[in-house]
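F.,

This is the one I mentioned.
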């Protein structure tokens, strides 16, 4: 009996020793936890609840994203630096203006020689004495150059008109003066004016839309004069000043087509514009009602 008890005790002792040794070995080989669950967060765990909460708010980044959307919302990216504004006396501004002036001069010369379609931006750069890639620092297309010229001409016409205008004069006389100033500028650069007229007939051309936008601005200037005339009772009360400005613009612009094709002289064109204005006013002036 004692032998059997001793044998059982020895067996239990050996089992206990093996268990202790196994536990120590497993403990020494285990990797310390690093708040990472190899098979994903357990259902009901805090990590799972946070993940679900973030997902419902749309703050979880898609798989493979380097940072979570939640992290980005807490730490937004630093704002990009604004482009440095140059001082008025900075030499780079002066050099840029000179370069752009050379480009515009070269473009006008090539537009006259080859026509708008025949003048490439590369040829303009060569004529201006700069590399083909350098010109893109100043302009992006030859259409931009043409629009610059037309915009400047339009602004100059309005500036000259306002310099000598009296807003209390009869509306018809004010319109005549504005159209005369515009006429003088347009006939002084026949080639540029002709290019603009032809561009509007090519609806597929990129420049057509831009030229038509400039035409809309001219219509707006005419409408401003007409609006003042209606306030001064120079026009009938029921006259639509916008439609009247459009009619007047298209009458004068249409008169320039035979002139651009060399069929009439500058003076004949001016007289045609005056006649169109007189005819229009005989139908819309307050005295005729």
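My design for it:
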């Amino acid at each position: 009996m004692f032998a059997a008890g001793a044998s059982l005790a020895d067996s239990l002792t050996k089992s206990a020793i093996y268990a202790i040794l196994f536990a120590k070995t497993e403990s020494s080989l285990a990797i310390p936890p690093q708040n990472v669950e190899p098979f994903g967060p357990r259902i009901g765990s805090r990590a799972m609840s946070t993940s679900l909460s973030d997902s419902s708010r749309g703050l979880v980044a898609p798989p493979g994203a380097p940072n979570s959307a939640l992290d980005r919302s807490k730490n937004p990216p630093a704002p990009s630096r604004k482009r440095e504004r140059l001082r008025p006396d900075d030499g780079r501004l002066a050099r840029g203006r000179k370069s752009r002036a050379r480009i515009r001069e070269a473009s006008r010369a090539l537009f006259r020689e080859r026509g708008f379609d025949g003048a490439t931006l590369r040829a303009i750069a060569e004529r201006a004495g700069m590399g083909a890639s350098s010109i893109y620092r100043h302009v992006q297309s030859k259409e931009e150059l043409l629009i610059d010229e037309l915009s400047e001409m339009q602004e100059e016409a309005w500036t000259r008109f306002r310099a000598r205008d009296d807003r209390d004069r009869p509306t018809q006389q004010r319109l005549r003066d504005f159209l005369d100033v515009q006429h003088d500028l347009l006939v002084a650069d026949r080639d540029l004016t002709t290019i603009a007229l032809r561009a509007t007939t090519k609806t597929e051309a990129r420049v057509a839309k831009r030229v038509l936008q400039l035409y809309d601005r001219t219509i707006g200037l005419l409408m401003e004069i007409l609006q003042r005339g209606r306030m001064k009772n120079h026009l009938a009360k029921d006259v639509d000043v916008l439609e009247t400005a459009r009619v007047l613009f298209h009458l004068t612009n249409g008169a320039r087509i035979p002139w651009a094709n060399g069929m009439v002289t500058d003076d004949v064109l001016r007289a045609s514009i005056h006649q169109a204005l007189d005819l229009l006013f005989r139908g819309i002036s307050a005295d005729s009602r």
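Residues 92-140 form a domain with the Arc Repressor Mutant, subunit A fold (CATH 1.10.10).

Talk soon.
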